[in-house]
Amino acid sequence: MNRRECLSLGLIAVSAFGCRPIRRQYPSTVFSAAKDADGYAIYGLYSETLAFRFKLSCEQRMHGFARRPQSDDVVCFARRPGEMAVVFDGESGSQRNLIESASNRLFYGHGAYSADGRYLYASENAYQTGHGVIGIYDADAGYSRVGEFESGGIGPHEIILSADGRQLVVANGGVRTHPSSGRKKLNLQTMESNITWIDLSTEVPVRTERLPGDHRQLSIRHIDINRYGSLVFACQYYGDDGGTPQLFGREQNSGGLELTPLELSALSRLGNYCGSVVALNEEIAVTSPRGNHFAWTKSNRTQVALTRIGEVCGLFSTADHLIVSDGRGYVRRISRNHPSQFRQRKYDQVLWDNHLG
User: Fold this and answer.
1) DSSP state, residue 151
2) Are the C-beta atoms of 150 and 133 separated by less than 8 Å?
3) What whole-number distance in Å separates Cα of residue 156 and Cα of residue 171?
4) CA atoms within 13 A on the CB side of 219
5) Which of 75, 126, 213, 307 is deepest in the core (most CB within 10 A)?
6) Vertex 189: Cα angle to 186 and 193 (nearest 5)
7) How far is the C-alpha of 110 from the C-alpha of 158, rounded, in Å?
């Protein structure tokens, strides 16, 4: 039985039992990459109290996380240069495996597991040609790389499972980079981002959506799906025209992407840059480390509550709270029903990185 046949059987089983195979709903531990006095690391914090649980030292700057279903495996991907991914025990913090990037491939910082936890998918840069690929790793075989398929665009960043677990949803940011050029963006005049849905049984795109209107230099970087299966997205603007485009939105019920229309007074506080996004029931929460604000849309979808937090970026949802981290060592647990009520903890000499997981 080949990989696709095995995956198809797994998807049938998931559908038969009606599971929602996106991630554990409300874990007791939240993870963040960080830089501290000793170098780069992964921290585990208790999600209820934000107290320290464990620390795992790393050789490179780490980025996004993926939790393996029905397992304590958690993977964190490096970003810039993206040469490794660390698999660790989410309970103890001990390292279980180290995945090295394949030849002529670099990790883009994010990944997702198949619904049954057998395969790990990683967004990757095929930098010799500039196109995006999704690397496939067999978690049951020591995370050996067993294949890849096209991401449906350039610069794939965050990837997640669809609500039914049958498709991989890819935010193709549209930006081409090469390790020899550092962080330089090589195609700003021609870039075009999209969100692509890929059938995991065939590894072929089944749908691609682009932003409405002329938003060529608006890069879709991060995505999330709420409990109803509705997708939200957040962008970063790379134009040099002094513009202030809308930065986040959702997939419409009829298909297509819709940007949330904020008033300029609110939009200008986001600094043309969203770092993380979370889909709530009908609302969207985003962070802006460049604008130094945490934003949360209200139920009418066009008004937004803004909270000033310096260098805020990490964002994670629990049953009743949002956990927010920043580059100054603070982590906050904010009530979803009463946003003015929150608990915070300061970690000295710790700079939290972009994402919580």
Assistant:
1) -
2) yes
3) 6
4) 26
5) 75
6) 85
7) 5
State if pTM tops 0.90.
Answer: yes
Measured between alpha carbons, how far is 78 from 101 in angstroms, rounded to an integer? 10
Closest CA to 127 of 59, 81, 73: 81
pLDDT in tens, 290-317: 999 999 997 666 689 999 999 999 999 9
Question: What is the radius of gyration, based on Cα positions, of the chain?
Answer: 19
Task: Give me the phi and psi of 55, to 5 degrees please.
Answer: -140, 135
DSSP type of residue 38: T
Degrees (nearest 5) of the Cα angle 299, 302, 307?
80
Q: Kind and range of the H or E element at 230?
A: none
Which residue do the tokens 């709530």 mark? 280
User: pLDDT value at position 19?
Assistant: 41
Residue from 126, 180, 127 nearest 135 by CA: 126
More confident residue, 5 or 104: 104
Instruction: Using alpha carbons, list the distances in angstroms from residue 100 to 64, 82, 321.
Output: 16, 9, 35
CB 353 within 8 Å of CB 311: no
The token duo for 14 is: 């998931």
* Residues pairing with 317 in the sheet: 322
- In contact, 276 and 222? CB cutoff 8 Å: yes
In 3D, which of 220, 218, 196, 223 has the Cα closest to residue 208?
196
Residue 17, pLDDT above cutoff 50:
no
* Joined tokens for residue 141: 């075989």
pLDDT digits (tens, 9 = 90+) for 139-187: 999 999 999 999 999 999 999 999 999 999 999 999 999 999 999 999 9
If you count them, how many residues does the chain have?
357
Q: Is the pLDDT of residue 13 over 70?
A: no
Return contacts of 268-271, CB within 8 angstroms, 24+ apart.
268/244, 269/293, 269/295, 269/306, 269/308, 270/295
Distance, CA of 306 to CA of 63 (rounded, Å): 25
Amino acid at 238: Y
What Cα–Cα distance (Å) separates residue 151 from each residue in 20, 136, 148, 156?
23, 12, 9, 7
Average pLDDT over residues 14-33: 62
